[in-house]
């Protein structure tokens, strides 16, 4: 059994001496016996599943059937005419083996080197005539046995210790079931099942079991004793492996190395099948982008094997088509082909690319149930899938499991886990993993350097990103387009476009040309700085370089046109995209819709919305939010709410941004009831209530003067652990400022500092507004000095608030001084500043000195030079003030009337003005309660002093870019 087979039935018994000593490595020391050879086993088809092919002209010797001998003999016995058949397990007869004689000739003939160094002794004298016949027969028998021995020795070289053959297995059986049964004899290293073969004459339904550990040989011997056991309705054949399968594979490999790779096809069906398989692999290598050709070539294979199914699953996995990958996988299992670890890994890769990690984990659990071991590639694919969806915690969990399962890891799995932590901005953990990888002796490839640079870009750490780039060069790597692209991306995100241009020039000097991604990064950098000219200059460089603009580049150009207000050119760019057969996306139309909405041209915004639908782009929630932004800014709340109804009809669910923008619209109108209504609707729909939602609600309460309701909102924020930021404090301070309660505003300033929230320019401006409305200009002046001491400089709104405060306090000279300070600080006055200043000076022109007259004249000249024209209400108010100063007109009247609207000179307006003057001017000349429209502009500026508008949710999250 150890060499070819051990037959339990014998017909002729021949005694000969075994060439193996008791210390032979093929058997344990306790099995000392005389082994015999059988020419043909009772189950030769099971033992020899892949027999070697011989030429037809080679004569096969007839080996003799032998059996074990119970008593040693010196002479050759005659054959028995009618041998008795016995059914005894041969291994049980090897427990107490008899002593055997050793034939020195057999050992000498096998040790070729020994036969050359120590030649055999001279032949003995010729035997008598009576023994001549027996000697001739013995010589013939030995020659035949030597041929069989030579053949057996060649096979014996491929015999694997601890490996057994198991025949007559059901074709539906699985590896884990076979391993579970044979594990009772020892630890199993591997299970090989042969369920199908391209040669229909070869047997199927057998397998091999390889035991592992130090007791593998003993485990194999114990399992062989169970030959003939019943297993799932089949009587198994269990024998020691003789190495023939590996010998056949080695011969095939040798023939292939020798240049003979011909395949002997048994029929036209086999030839056509092999040709279609080769065509399929050729299409996969040459035309992977042509999926129709790949599918057609796969369907032409009449009976695909596991290899073809695995290649097809892997092909769909690379495309991210998880549904078709699963379909091919199930088709393979329906044919009775069990998946291997490689096929399962390809399917898991398909789900990972499709970002469906739940299904990927279900495949992993199925592998464990079926007893298929997860290799390093499988763990790497799972970790990479979690890295793509930003779940660093799950990726870390699977990485620890991979470390516990496999002793050594490679650079690919380290690269995936490092990428996961870089995407989650856990750069400390990423650095620890790089250090761990280097300590284990794994050289970091250039991809890990790029991953670390991208991670430092996410946290805007320029210093460490440059350190990694320099280290990349020190380690002998040549920086690629990706290396320079990481640097350009970092610098453009930080607004350092000048440095980014320097990096691009260095890249070009090293012979590396720009691609579309680097050009897009540079254009994005200039767009963030509103530098439209340089953005278009980069686009011209793209055209000069001969690159064909892609959809991303066209989207950036459309953003540039929308930023500079050239909407017609932006629309023509969309049409150019369609001519180039580039499909516009929602990012293409969003800047145009948002720009028209900001400009109040809702009709054109809706036209672009319809154009987007006709182009095949399905509107999403961000598209509808852009329309709502425009309607809210124009205070058209009815139309804004109608957009929500249209969203629901289109199957688009409003999100937090939608309701927050509606709440901001009602807050600007002071409609607290509607704001609370949509706030409650957000709660009922289970949407997230964040600080932006509470900001809108606070703004509505403060605008309506309901400060107690605002305090209740802040208490609810504290109960939900939502911290107050600067914008929340600005809204509250501005609310108390509207009521002129400087004490409450001062308390909020103190509480703000205690909470560790630093006031900004909007906070100080809101507090100055509270002081101005309360008439406490002393505290307002002190606040100006305090903010300048900590490095916060006043802006235009701060100066406007201060000038308005001095005007309210009846100190026009100080208002004029503040106006001069504003101009010296480099701020350009706007219409509201001129209105406050002129009104203040006119109110005191009849009681003050001459310098106020000169101030009015100089300011009026500036307004004329700047082309500023006041509205009719302001002109009427100023005209009444001038009539008190100059009854019959004069220099001041002539100077100020140049800033009046053109309709002022009509006789009708003059009559209306005189009539209003006669009705409204009291005897004491008090006109402080007169109404004029520019007062609304000042009030609007005061409402925006807290700076909430630039920090709405829609602007912070950049929904449309």
Automatic annotation (TrEMBL):
Does the record bear Repeat in its keywords? yes
In the UniProt record, the signal sequence range is none
Report the InterPro entries cross-referenced here.
Nucleotide-bd_a/b_plait_sf, PPR_rpt, PROP1-like_PPR_dom, RBD_domain_sf, RRM_dom, TPR-like_helical_dom_sf
Low complexity bias spans: 1-11, 64-77
Q: Where is the composition biased (Polar residues)?
A: 31-58
Q: Where is there biased composition of kind Acidic residues?
A: 916-942
- Is Chaperone one of the keywords? no
Q: Which stretches of sequence are listed as region Disordered? A: 1-106, 913-961
| UniProt keyword list | Repeat, RNA-binding
Which terms in the Gene Ontology molecular function aspect does this entry carry?
Answer: RNA binding
Q: Start and end of every RRM domain?
A: 162-243
The biased composition feature labelled Basic and acidic residues covers 949-961
Q: Give start and end residues of every PPR repeat.
A: 305-339, 340-374, 410-444, 445-479, 480-514, 515-549, 550-584, 585-619, 620-654, 655-689, 690-724, 725-759, 760-794, 795-829
Q: From what superkingdom does this record's organism come?
A: Eukaryota
User: What family does the database annotate?
Assistant: Belongs to the PPR family. P subfamily.
- The molecule here is called RRM domain-containing protein
User: Source species, please?
Assistant: Papaver somniferum (Opium poppy)
